[in-house]
Amino acid sequence: xxxxxxxxxxxxxxxxxxxxxxxxxxxxxxxxxxxxxxxxxxxxxxxxxxxxxxxxxxxxxxxxxxxxxxxxxxxxxxxxxxxxxxxxxxxxxxxxxxxxxxxxxxxxxxxxxxxxxxxxxxxxxxxxxxxxxxxxxxxxxxxxxxxxxxxxxxxxxxxxxxxxxxxxxxxxxxxxxxxxxxxxxxxxxxxxxxxxxxxxxxxxxxxxxxxxxxxxxxxxxxxxxxxxxxxxxxxxxxxxxxxxxxxxxxxxxxxxxxxxxxxxxxxxxxxxxxxxxxxxxxxxxxxxxxxxxxxxxxxxxxxxxxxxxxxxxxxxxxxxxxxxxxxxxxxxxxxxxxxxxxxxxxxxxxxxxxxxxxxxxxxxxxxxxxxxxxxxxxxxxxxxx
Length: 385
Hints:
- With 385 residues, this protein is mainly alpha-helical.
- The protein has helices at residues 2-14, 16-38, 44-54, 59-86, 92-112, 117-133, 137-161, 167-190, 192-195, 201-205, 209-228, 237-257, 264-294, 302-320, 329-359.
- Mean pLDDT is 83; it is low at 364-385.
Protein backbone atom coordinates (compact mmCIF):
# COMPACT_ATOMS: atom_id res chain seq x y z
CA UNK A 1 0.00 0.00 0.00
CA UNK A 2 2.81 2.40 0.91
CA UNK A 3 4.49 1.73 -2.44
CA UNK A 4 1.25 2.42 -4.29
CA UNK A 5 0.72 5.71 -2.46
CA UNK A 6 4.32 6.71 -3.19
CA UNK A 7 3.82 6.03 -6.91
CA UNK A 8 0.60 8.05 -6.90
CA UNK A 9 2.33 10.94 -5.12
CA UNK A 10 5.17 10.83 -7.63
CA UNK A 11 2.75 10.87 -10.53
CA UNK A 12 0.83 13.80 -9.01
CA UNK A 13 4.05 15.78 -8.49
CA UNK A 14 5.10 15.16 -12.09
CA UNK A 15 1.74 16.56 -13.28
CA UNK A 16 1.34 19.35 -10.76
CA UNK A 17 1.42 22.07 -13.44
CA UNK A 18 -1.42 20.42 -15.35
CA UNK A 19 -3.40 19.77 -12.17
CA UNK A 20 -2.99 23.40 -11.11
CA UNK A 21 -4.31 24.52 -14.50
CA UNK A 22 -7.36 22.25 -14.13
CA UNK A 23 -8.11 23.74 -10.70
CA UNK A 24 -7.66 27.32 -11.97
CA UNK A 25 -9.96 26.73 -14.95
CA UNK A 26 -12.62 25.16 -12.73
CA UNK A 27 -12.52 28.02 -10.23
CA UNK A 28 -12.64 30.60 -13.02
CA UNK A 29 -15.66 28.97 -14.66
CA UNK A 30 -17.62 28.65 -11.41
CA UNK A 31 -16.89 32.22 -10.30
CA UNK A 32 -17.67 33.65 -13.77
CA UNK A 33 -21.02 31.87 -13.83
CA UNK A 34 -21.86 33.04 -10.31
CA UNK A 35 -21.04 36.68 -11.11
CA UNK A 36 -22.90 36.56 -14.44
CA UNK A 37 -26.02 35.24 -12.72
CA UNK A 38 -25.74 37.84 -9.96
CA UNK A 39 -25.60 40.59 -12.60
CA UNK A 40 -28.51 39.00 -14.51
CA UNK A 41 -26.54 38.96 -17.76
CA UNK A 42 -28.43 37.85 -20.86
CA UNK A 43 -26.01 35.02 -21.71
CA UNK A 44 -23.88 33.86 -18.73
CA UNK A 45 -22.52 31.23 -21.12
CA UNK A 46 -20.21 33.78 -22.75
CA UNK A 47 -18.78 34.87 -19.42
CA UNK A 48 -17.98 31.25 -18.60
CA UNK A 49 -16.49 30.52 -22.04
CA UNK A 50 -14.35 33.65 -21.88
CA UNK A 51 -12.99 32.64 -18.47
CA UNK A 52 -12.01 29.25 -19.93
CA UNK A 53 -10.29 30.87 -22.91
CA UNK A 54 -8.15 33.34 -20.97
CA UNK A 55 -7.12 30.97 -18.14
CA UNK A 56 -3.88 29.55 -19.51
CA UNK A 57 -0.94 27.45 -18.34
CA UNK A 58 1.06 30.46 -17.14
CA UNK A 59 0.38 33.99 -15.99
CA UNK A 60 2.21 35.38 -19.01
CA UNK A 61 0.09 33.36 -21.42
CA UNK A 62 -3.08 34.40 -19.59
CA UNK A 63 -2.09 38.05 -19.95
CA UNK A 64 -1.61 37.59 -23.70
CA UNK A 65 -4.89 35.67 -24.11
CA UNK A 66 -6.84 38.27 -22.12
CA UNK A 67 -5.37 41.19 -24.06
CA UNK A 68 -6.03 39.56 -27.44
CA UNK A 69 -9.55 38.42 -26.55
CA UNK A 70 -10.58 41.79 -25.14
CA UNK A 71 -9.11 43.61 -28.14
CA UNK A 72 -10.95 41.35 -30.58
CA UNK A 73 -14.18 41.55 -28.60
CA UNK A 74 -14.21 45.33 -28.39
CA UNK A 75 -13.38 45.70 -32.08
CA UNK A 76 -15.96 43.15 -33.17
CA UNK A 77 -18.66 44.58 -30.90
CA UNK A 78 -18.13 48.12 -32.16
CA UNK A 79 -18.06 47.09 -35.81
CA UNK A 80 -20.97 44.63 -35.63
CA UNK A 81 -23.05 47.00 -33.49
CA UNK A 82 -22.45 49.91 -35.84
CA UNK A 83 -23.58 47.89 -38.86
CA UNK A 84 -26.66 46.63 -37.03
CA UNK A 85 -27.67 50.15 -36.01
CA UNK A 86 -26.87 51.99 -39.24
CA UNK A 87 -28.07 49.45 -41.85
CA UNK A 88 -31.76 48.40 -41.81
CA UNK A 89 -32.24 44.62 -41.98
CA UNK A 90 -35.91 43.87 -41.48
CA UNK A 91 -36.00 41.08 -44.08
CA UNK A 92 -34.14 37.78 -44.08
CA UNK A 93 -32.28 38.71 -47.27
CA UNK A 94 -31.11 41.97 -45.73
CA UNK A 95 -29.96 40.14 -42.61
CA UNK A 96 -27.98 37.67 -44.73
CA UNK A 97 -26.35 40.51 -46.65
CA UNK A 98 -25.49 42.23 -43.37
CA UNK A 99 -24.05 38.97 -42.05
CA UNK A 100 -21.73 38.78 -45.06
CA UNK A 101 -20.74 42.40 -44.55
CA UNK A 102 -19.96 41.65 -40.91
CA UNK A 103 -18.07 38.38 -41.27
CA UNK A 104 -15.93 39.00 -44.37
CA UNK A 105 -13.96 42.08 -43.19
CA UNK A 106 -13.54 40.80 -39.63
CA UNK A 107 -12.38 37.38 -40.81
CA UNK A 108 -9.87 39.06 -43.13
CA UNK A 109 -8.53 41.21 -40.29
CA UNK A 110 -8.32 38.12 -38.07
CA UNK A 111 -6.21 36.35 -40.69
CA UNK A 112 -3.83 39.32 -40.78
CA UNK A 113 -3.65 39.77 -37.00
CA UNK A 114 -4.32 36.72 -34.79
CA UNK A 115 -5.05 39.09 -31.88
CA UNK A 116 -8.32 40.01 -33.62
CA UNK A 117 -9.58 36.43 -34.08
CA UNK A 118 -12.39 36.95 -31.55
CA UNK A 119 -13.72 39.95 -33.49
CA UNK A 120 -15.55 37.80 -36.05
CA UNK A 121 -17.39 35.77 -33.41
CA UNK A 122 -18.29 38.89 -31.45
CA UNK A 123 -19.55 40.69 -34.55
CA UNK A 124 -21.84 37.79 -35.41
CA UNK A 125 -23.17 37.54 -31.84
CA UNK A 126 -23.88 41.27 -31.66
CA UNK A 127 -25.70 41.09 -34.99
CA UNK A 128 -27.80 37.95 -34.43
CA UNK A 129 -28.60 38.00 -30.71
CA UNK A 130 -31.06 40.92 -31.09
CA UNK A 131 -32.94 38.89 -33.71
CA UNK A 132 -33.20 35.93 -31.32
CA UNK A 133 -33.99 37.80 -28.10
CA UNK A 134 -35.76 40.83 -29.58
CA UNK A 135 -33.38 43.35 -28.06
CA UNK A 136 -31.74 46.41 -29.59
CA UNK A 137 -28.27 46.18 -31.20
CA UNK A 138 -26.93 48.66 -28.65
CA UNK A 139 -28.13 46.47 -25.76
CA UNK A 140 -26.50 43.48 -27.46
CA UNK A 141 -23.17 45.33 -27.67
CA UNK A 142 -23.31 46.35 -24.02
CA UNK A 143 -24.29 42.84 -22.87
CA UNK A 144 -21.51 41.26 -24.89
CA UNK A 145 -18.87 43.62 -23.52
CA UNK A 146 -20.03 43.05 -19.93
CA UNK A 147 -20.11 39.27 -20.38
CA UNK A 148 -16.61 39.18 -21.83
CA UNK A 149 -15.29 41.60 -19.22
CA UNK A 150 -16.66 39.42 -16.42
CA UNK A 151 -15.17 36.26 -17.95
CA UNK A 152 -11.80 37.82 -18.76
CA UNK A 153 -11.47 39.44 -15.33
CA UNK A 154 -12.39 36.22 -13.60
CA UNK A 155 -9.99 34.12 -15.66
CA UNK A 156 -7.13 36.57 -15.20
CA UNK A 157 -7.77 36.80 -11.45
CA UNK A 158 -7.76 33.00 -11.20
CA UNK A 159 -4.44 32.90 -13.06
CA UNK A 160 -2.94 35.31 -10.53
CA UNK A 161 -4.52 33.97 -7.33
CA UNK A 162 -5.27 30.24 -7.71
CA UNK A 163 -2.09 28.16 -7.70
CA UNK A 164 -0.37 30.65 -10.04
CA UNK A 165 2.18 29.23 -12.44
CA UNK A 166 4.87 31.53 -13.77
CA UNK A 167 6.30 30.90 -17.24
CA UNK A 168 9.69 31.94 -15.87
CA UNK A 169 9.64 28.97 -13.50
CA UNK A 170 8.44 26.60 -16.20
CA UNK A 171 11.43 27.56 -18.37
CA UNK A 172 13.74 25.64 -16.03
CA UNK A 173 12.01 22.29 -16.42
CA UNK A 174 11.26 22.64 -20.12
CA UNK A 175 14.76 23.86 -21.01
CA UNK A 176 16.27 20.98 -19.03
CA UNK A 177 14.10 18.51 -20.93
CA UNK A 178 15.19 19.94 -24.29
CA UNK A 179 18.86 19.75 -23.27
CA UNK A 180 18.37 16.08 -22.37
CA UNK A 181 16.78 15.44 -25.78
CA UNK A 182 19.75 17.11 -27.47
CA UNK A 183 22.15 14.97 -25.41
CA UNK A 184 20.37 11.77 -26.43
CA UNK A 185 20.30 12.74 -30.10
CA UNK A 186 23.99 13.69 -30.10
CA UNK A 187 24.96 10.37 -28.54
CA UNK A 188 22.95 8.35 -31.06
CA UNK A 189 24.15 10.32 -34.06
CA UNK A 190 27.83 10.05 -33.21
CA UNK A 191 27.53 6.26 -33.29
CA UNK A 192 26.90 6.63 -37.03
CA UNK A 193 30.57 7.43 -37.62
CA UNK A 194 31.48 3.86 -36.78
CA UNK A 195 28.29 2.03 -37.73
CA UNK A 196 26.71 4.26 -40.37
CA UNK A 197 23.15 5.60 -40.48
CA UNK A 198 20.41 5.37 -43.06
CA UNK A 199 19.12 8.58 -44.59
CA UNK A 200 16.04 8.67 -42.36
CA UNK A 201 17.92 8.05 -39.11
CA UNK A 202 18.82 11.70 -38.35
CA UNK A 203 15.18 12.71 -38.77
CA UNK A 204 14.02 9.85 -36.56
CA UNK A 205 16.63 10.51 -33.88
CA UNK A 206 15.94 14.25 -33.79
CA UNK A 207 12.19 13.94 -34.16
CA UNK A 208 10.38 16.29 -31.83
CA UNK A 209 13.39 18.37 -30.77
CA UNK A 210 12.56 21.18 -33.19
CA UNK A 211 8.98 21.38 -31.93
CA UNK A 212 10.22 21.40 -28.33
CA UNK A 213 12.65 24.24 -29.08
CA UNK A 214 9.87 26.24 -30.76
CA UNK A 215 7.58 25.72 -27.78
CA UNK A 216 10.40 26.72 -25.43
CA UNK A 217 10.92 29.99 -27.28
CA UNK A 218 7.18 30.71 -27.10
CA UNK A 219 7.35 30.14 -23.35
CA UNK A 220 10.32 32.48 -23.23
CA UNK A 221 8.15 35.22 -24.73
CA UNK A 222 5.57 34.59 -22.01
CA UNK A 223 8.27 34.76 -19.35
CA UNK A 224 9.57 38.07 -20.71
CA UNK A 225 6.00 39.38 -20.75
CA UNK A 226 5.76 38.53 -17.06
CA UNK A 227 9.08 40.21 -16.35
CA UNK A 228 8.02 43.34 -18.22
CA UNK A 229 4.84 43.48 -16.10
CA UNK A 230 6.95 42.84 -12.96
CA UNK A 231 5.00 39.66 -12.26
CA UNK A 232 8.11 37.53 -11.98
CA UNK A 233 11.82 38.03 -11.52
CA UNK A 234 14.90 36.15 -12.58
CA UNK A 235 17.49 36.04 -15.35
CA UNK A 236 16.80 37.11 -18.90
CA UNK A 237 15.62 34.02 -20.79
CA UNK A 238 17.21 35.13 -24.08
CA UNK A 239 20.79 33.86 -23.57
CA UNK A 240 19.64 30.44 -22.37
CA UNK A 241 17.18 29.97 -25.23
CA UNK A 242 19.68 31.14 -27.85
CA UNK A 243 22.32 28.75 -26.50
CA UNK A 244 19.91 25.82 -26.62
CA UNK A 245 19.00 26.74 -30.20
CA UNK A 246 22.69 26.77 -31.17
CA UNK A 247 23.20 23.37 -29.55
CA UNK A 248 20.23 22.13 -31.57
CA UNK A 249 21.89 23.43 -34.74
CA UNK A 250 25.14 21.66 -33.75
CA UNK A 251 23.28 18.37 -33.50
CA UNK A 252 21.65 18.93 -36.90
CA UNK A 253 25.06 19.52 -38.50
CA UNK A 254 26.58 16.49 -36.79
CA UNK A 255 23.65 14.40 -38.04
CA UNK A 256 24.52 15.32 -41.63
CA UNK A 257 28.16 14.40 -41.11
CA UNK A 258 27.44 11.00 -39.53
CA UNK A 259 25.30 9.50 -42.29
CA UNK A 260 28.23 7.52 -43.72
CA UNK A 261 30.61 5.58 -41.49
CA UNK A 262 34.31 6.38 -41.58
CA UNK A 263 36.60 4.01 -43.52
CA UNK A 264 37.66 0.98 -41.49
CA UNK A 265 41.28 2.10 -41.05
CA UNK A 266 40.14 5.52 -39.76
CA UNK A 267 37.42 3.94 -37.61
CA UNK A 268 39.91 1.79 -35.78
CA UNK A 269 41.95 4.86 -34.87
CA UNK A 270 39.09 7.16 -33.88
CA UNK A 271 36.60 4.74 -32.32
CA UNK A 272 37.98 5.07 -28.78
CA UNK A 273 38.43 8.89 -28.75
CA UNK A 274 35.01 9.36 -30.38
CA UNK A 275 33.43 7.16 -27.72
CA UNK A 276 35.09 9.32 -25.10
CA UNK A 277 33.72 12.48 -26.72
CA UNK A 278 30.24 10.99 -26.97
CA UNK A 279 30.17 9.89 -23.34
CA UNK A 280 31.68 13.14 -22.00
CA UNK A 281 29.35 15.50 -23.88
CA UNK A 282 26.28 13.36 -23.22
CA UNK A 283 27.07 13.21 -19.49
CA UNK A 284 27.85 16.94 -19.33
CA UNK A 285 24.64 17.98 -21.08
CA UNK A 286 22.55 15.75 -18.83
CA UNK A 287 24.33 17.06 -15.73
CA UNK A 288 23.74 20.63 -16.98
CA UNK A 289 20.05 19.85 -17.42
CA UNK A 290 19.84 18.50 -13.88
CA UNK A 291 21.66 21.56 -12.53
CA UNK A 292 19.32 23.91 -14.39
CA UNK A 293 16.27 22.04 -13.15
CA UNK A 294 17.46 22.13 -9.53
CA UNK A 295 18.94 25.63 -9.53
CA UNK A 296 22.44 24.24 -8.95
CA UNK A 297 25.83 25.26 -10.34
CA UNK A 298 26.95 23.84 -13.70
CA UNK A 299 29.04 20.68 -13.80
CA UNK A 300 32.79 20.81 -14.31
CA UNK A 301 33.60 20.97 -18.00
CA UNK A 302 37.05 19.36 -17.72
CA UNK A 303 35.95 15.87 -18.91
CA UNK A 304 34.60 17.41 -22.13
CA UNK A 305 37.83 19.32 -22.64
CA UNK A 306 39.97 16.24 -22.07
CA UNK A 307 37.85 14.08 -24.39
CA UNK A 308 37.94 16.63 -27.20
CA UNK A 309 41.68 17.11 -26.73
CA UNK A 310 42.20 13.36 -27.00
CA UNK A 311 40.11 13.29 -30.17
CA UNK A 312 42.06 16.24 -31.63
CA UNK A 313 45.40 14.53 -30.94
CA UNK A 314 44.28 11.33 -32.62
CA UNK A 315 42.92 13.28 -35.62
CA UNK A 316 46.32 14.96 -35.97
CA UNK A 317 47.99 11.54 -35.84
CA UNK A 318 45.62 10.17 -38.51
CA UNK A 319 46.41 13.10 -40.77
CA UNK A 320 50.15 12.72 -40.25
CA UNK A 321 49.87 9.09 -41.28
CA UNK A 322 48.16 10.13 -44.53
CA UNK A 323 44.91 8.24 -43.92
CA UNK A 324 42.71 11.16 -45.01
CA UNK A 325 44.31 11.80 -48.42
CA UNK A 326 42.87 8.65 -50.09
CA UNK A 327 39.32 9.57 -49.04
CA UNK A 328 36.80 10.77 -51.61
CA UNK A 329 36.13 14.51 -51.57
CA UNK A 330 32.75 14.32 -49.82
CA UNK A 331 34.04 11.88 -47.18
CA UNK A 332 37.03 14.08 -46.40
CA UNK A 333 34.76 17.11 -46.24
CA UNK A 334 32.49 15.37 -43.71
CA UNK A 335 35.53 14.38 -41.67
CA UNK A 336 36.80 17.95 -41.37
CA UNK A 337 33.28 19.36 -40.90
CA UNK A 338 32.79 17.05 -37.92
CA UNK A 339 35.79 18.59 -36.20
CA UNK A 340 34.40 22.06 -36.81
CA UNK A 341 30.98 21.05 -35.45
CA UNK A 342 32.49 19.55 -32.32
CA UNK A 343 34.47 22.75 -31.74
CA UNK A 344 31.30 24.80 -32.14
CA UNK A 345 29.53 22.50 -29.72
CA UNK A 346 32.32 22.90 -27.19
CA UNK A 347 31.97 26.68 -27.35
CA UNK A 348 28.18 26.44 -26.99
CA UNK A 349 28.55 24.10 -24.03
CA UNK A 350 30.69 26.78 -22.41
CA UNK A 351 27.90 29.29 -23.04
CA UNK A 352 25.43 26.82 -21.55
CA UNK A 353 27.55 26.58 -18.40
CA UNK A 354 27.45 30.35 -18.09
CA UNK A 355 23.66 30.37 -18.51
CA UNK A 356 23.21 27.63 -15.91
CA UNK A 357 25.34 29.69 -13.53
CA UNK A 358 23.05 32.69 -14.08
CA UNK A 359 20.00 30.58 -13.32
CA UNK A 360 21.58 28.97 -10.26
CA UNK A 361 19.97 29.77 -6.91
CA UNK A 362 23.06 28.50 -5.09
CA UNK A 363 26.50 30.13 -4.91
CA UNK A 364 28.57 28.67 -7.75
CA UNK A 365 31.69 26.79 -6.76
CA UNK A 366 33.44 28.07 -9.87
CA UNK A 367 32.60 30.65 -12.51
CA UNK A 368 32.31 29.37 -16.03
CA UNK A 369 32.53 31.31 -19.24
CA UNK A 370 32.90 30.35 -22.85
CA UNK A 371 35.72 32.90 -23.05
CA UNK A 372 37.82 30.67 -20.79
CA UNK A 373 37.50 27.67 -23.09
CA UNK A 374 40.52 26.94 -25.25
CA UNK A 375 39.73 27.50 -28.88
CA UNK A 376 41.65 26.14 -31.82
CA UNK A 377 42.19 28.19 -34.94
CA UNK A 378 40.21 25.84 -37.17
CA UNK A 379 38.04 23.53 -35.09
CA UNK A 380 39.22 20.50 -33.15
CA UNK A 381 42.43 20.24 -35.16
CA UNK A 382 40.33 19.53 -38.20
CA UNK A 383 39.63 22.59 -40.31
CA UNK A 384 42.88 22.92 -42.26
CA UNK A 385 44.07 20.25 -44.57
